[in-house]
Amino acid sequence: MLDMRLSARADYALRAVIELAAAPDGHVTADQLAKSQRIPGKFLEAILTQLGRSGLVRSRRGPDGGFWLARPAAEISLADIIRAIDGPLLGVRGERPENLGYIGAAEPLQTVWIALRANERAILDDVTLQHVVSGVLPDSVRKLADDPRAWA
Fold this sequence. Notes:
Helices cover 49% and strands 5% of the residues. The chain is built from seven helices and two strands. It has a single domain, classed as Winged helix-like DNA-binding domain superfamily/Winged helix DNA-binding domain (Arc Repressor Mutant, subunit A, Orthogonal Bundle). The termini are close together. The protein has a two-stranded antiparallel sheet with strand order 1-2. With 152 residues, the chain is mainly alpha-helical.
């Protein structure tokens, strides 16, 4: 069985940014984010800095400071956040699948990795923060999750 692996940094980043998207006034302090999602504070600060450099969140210091989304939640996909934290969605030994050179009987593996990346993108590029916050996920995602094999 093949398991998708998501780094702790990417998981924390997703959770923090979803909290930002759900914030009633649009901005939240790092301390509030850390407490609400049980994310270690120093770890979260580094993640928020990285998301800021990627243009996904903005911040302001001071008494009215905090973090907020740089774009509307409907315009930020889960893939945008994962790429900002971990880089390309699917790599094999740190390489993009199209740059790999398999030979002999293993040659079709490259096509499998490219198809797997395309499938991963079909979900993560289509699901936005707004989908998650609203609880209304795309039909294609619901259909996949409704298959009992998905839960095994």
